[in-house]
Amino acid sequence: MYLNVKVRLCVGVMVAPANNGNPVRLKRELLKVIQKRLKGKELKAARSDWHSKRKPIGCGLTIHPGIGCPVGCSYCYIYDMGFSWQVAPYSLNGLQLVAALLFNKYFYPTKWGTYLAFGSVTEPFLPSVLPKTLEYLRAVGEYLGNPCQVSTKMVINDEHLDELARITGSKLSILVTVTSLSQYAHLERRAPHPLKRLELVSRLRSKGFKPFVFIRPLLPGLRVEEVDEIAELAKASGAYGIVVGNLRLSLNIVRRLMREGIDVAKHLKIDLGKLKRGFVDVRVDGALQSLIREGALKKGLIFLKRACCANTVSQLLSGYDDVVCPSLCFLNEQSCEKSCPARCRIRARGEPRHLDFDEVMREVLGSDEYEVEVEDHTLCVKLKRPLRDEKLASFALSYLFRRRVRFVKRF
Ligand code: SF4
Ligand code: SF4
After folding, report:
1. What are phi and psi of 177, to 5 degrees?
2. Whole-number average pLDDT of the chain
3. How far is the C-alpha of 137 from the C-alpha of 123, rounded, in Å?
4. Average of pLDDT values for 94-109?
5. Residue 73 C-beta-side C-alpha neighbours within 13 Å
6. Do residues 327 and 333 make contact, with C-beta atoms less than 8 angstroms apart?
7. CB of residue 78 inside a 6 A radius of ligand 1
8. Ligand 1 pocket, 123 CB below 6 A?
9. Which residue owns the Cα nearest ligand 2 atom 8?
10. Average pLDDT over every residue of 325-343
11. Which residue among 5, 49, 252, 315 is the one 20 to 30 A from 350 at the CA level?
């Protein structure tokens, strides 16, 4: 049955009210501007860089301000990916990163565009990486305006915090990682003490940021008392909430965790055959996740199950009251937290009004020969001619409009 049905037949060209109502056209125009500002060699490096090719994952498109990490957390997957204990800032400058993103077919600018997640194969606030992180955030803020997120367990000084606030207008989503209070000395030997990290949360809050405590990875066997204590300290430090995250396992990580006393094999059903072939993402849910949720909600904290949701909620708390999570996790009961203040499921119903709908449709489909019916959270697009890249068009429309997309072919 069709709920909230709206039919459109698009003819002729309509003018977008403003560029930011049409991230697809804005992307094209920005690329022209950036291409004039970079030298040929710089442009070539940007075009061939991985940032110009990667597809966004759950938390967004990962941005690497550095490569490698000397902290050596027992659960860290980067070493099994071939990254080193030595850290080096990333080779691109800020404008080159912007160019690389604009070359990326999966990327769109503006606050409705691609979520950017800083770190991934390094720690973005390491002293030698921080200047690059700041440079990238500045360039993204200046040219693109995308929602950005940093997850960290480093502690930075007030001067850097002020710079971060100046650059991002305190809209940067910051997740401060605390995985354990009792075992951190074994698991995160070279990282600052968790209490120091929680002090950072307080200072972030005082500068206007909307910090969350990030329990990632959520390790099996975390004790009830510790869960309570983390929630208590998160509240006391001024965190807005708690986000839990997956544990990525490889054979090496299992061995390291077992060595540190975390009996992964006892708590999780792991298929060793799969681990031999690479990584397996494990969500330690069920009882442990419910405990954390309960503890957080009891203290008046927001509880979330995904990093992208924390980015969405940070924007909401910063005054963008029309935000909706782009990975459509609100359509999945396992991923969406029902107490979340963002209420994406309600907002993402019916015809999308946050962008210039017809312009974006035409740009993405490359034609104005289509009809659209909006059915609850789904755009049902009736095509009258084949698309060059149907998967990409579906990805772009779904991401930008925050709706499921279904193509119906009529040719
Ligand atoms: S700080 Fe982050 S990147 Fe560095 S080892 Fe730990 S988990 Fe890995
Ligand atoms: S409403 Fe659901 S999908 Fe939206 S941000 Fe909250 S938890 Fe995520």
Report:
1. -80, 125
2. 91
3. 15
4. 98
5. 28
6. no
7. yes
8. yes
9. 309
10. 94
11. 315
C-alpha 216/C-alpha 176 separation (Å) is 10
Ligand 2 neighbours, Cβ below 6 Å, are 304, 309, 312-313, 325, 329-330, 336-337, 340, 342-344
Ligand 2 center to 366 CA (angstroms): 31
My answer on whether omega of the bond before 124 falls inside 30° of 0, hence cis, is no
CA of 369 to the centre of ligand 1 (A): 49
Strand-pair partners of 63: 118
Higher pLDDT, 172 or 222: 172
Cβ-in-10-Å burial (0-12, 13-18, 19+) of 340 comes to buried
Where do the domains of the chain lie, and which CATH numbers do they carry?
Answer: 1-17+325-411 (no CATH), 28-324 (3.20.20.70)
Report pLDDT for 285.
Answer: 62
Length of the chain: 411
What pLDDT was estimated at residue 37? 95
Ligand 1 proximity of 121 Cβ (cutoff 6 Å) = no
Give the closest residue (by CA) to ligand 2 atom 4: 344
What is the tens place of the pLDDT at every residue in 219-236?
A: 888 888 899 999 999 999
Nearest CA among 88, 87, 91 for reference residue 100: 91
Q: Which residues contact 168 (CB under 8 A, 6 or more apart)?
A: 137, 141, 148
